[in-house]
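Fig. S4 source data, part A: sequence.
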Amino acid sequence: MSKAASTTKLNAGLVEAAIRRHVDHRANTLIPEAEIRWGIGSHRGNYRADFVLITRAGYATELEVKVSLADWRKDLSKPKWVGMPDWITRFIYVVPENLGIPEWVPAKSGVWHVVPAVTDPYYNPALESRRPDGYQIVVARAPHVLGRTKLPSAVLGTWLRNLYYRYWDQRIHAEGRIARHIREGVAA
């Protein structure tokens, strides 16, 4: 474990890095900031999930990142608890270990704790000051299966298209911040 990991206060970015390392990307698709729409007619709405994990078999699990008890408690008033679509087959909170599992967390929700890594294969002392994310996921409570409906291909297509556009927008923005003579390889 890196010295920085043991002293760094967990924030959403560090929790998300632990999620990315924990999820097997060869067997699952991990969609960040997925918009979830639910309902029909006058009983419908939408919300944003921090991550949706999609298995090779086509089942979706929502992962919600929380870094404080206040933020976690506030999550219970969100519309997802009124009308979560039936294709969300599991729901998991991913939180720092020191938050535990409060009694007000729905019993059907899973909880993953983020803890300092005992052995961190990504640890490099030369990069310690720039990458203090030596954390791993420990399953504190497994989620209940909420349903057996697979993710509709149209929803996955929309998420992948949005991810594609976000990627190119971010890349164009990042390239625009590089000086032209460096970006294009011309003499200054």
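Fig. S4 source data, part B ends here. The chain has two domains: 3-150, 152-188.
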